[in-house]
Amino acid sequence: MLFEDSQDDGIQIGSHHLASRLIVGTGKYDDLELMRDSLDRSGTDCVTVAVRRERLYDGDGRNLLDFLDPQKFTLLPNTAGCYNARDAVRVARMGREILSQLGNPGADWVKLEVLGDAKTLLPDPVATLEATRQLVEDGFQVLCYTSDDPIVARRLKEAGATSVMPAGSPIGSGQGVLNPNNIKICLEYLKGDDPSYPVIVDAGVGTASDVAEAMELGVDGVLLNTAIAHARDPLGMATAMKLGCEAGRLAYQAGRIPKALYATASSPEEGLVSTRPYKSRFWGRP
Amino acid sequence: MTRVTINGEVREIADQTTVAQLLTQLELNDQRVAVEVNLEIVPHQTHHQFILNEGDELEVVTLVGGG
Question: How far apart are the first and last CA of chain B?
Answer without folding.
Answer: 41
